[in-house]
Amino acid sequence: METPGSQTSLHRANLERVVRAVRMAGSLTQAEIARATGLSAATVSNIVRELKDGGTVEVTPTSAGGRRARSVSLSGDAGIVIGVDFGHTHLRVAVGNLAHQVLAEESEPLDVDASSEQGFGRAEVLVKRLIASTGIGEDKVIGVGLGVPGPIDVESGTLGSTSILPGWTGINPSEELARRLGVPVYVDNDANLGALGELVWGSGRGVKDLAYIKVASGVGAGLVIDGQIYRGPGGTAGEIGHITLDESGPVCRCGNRGCLETFASARYVLPLLQPSHGQDLTMDRVVQLAREGDPGCRRVIADVGRHIGSGVANLCNLLNPSRVVLGGNLAEAGELVLAPIRESVSRYAIPSAARQLSVLPGALGSRAEVLGALALVLSEMGDSTLLEGSAGSGGALLAGAPAFT
Question: Tens of pLDDT along 216-228?
Answer without folding.
Answer: 888 999 999 998 8
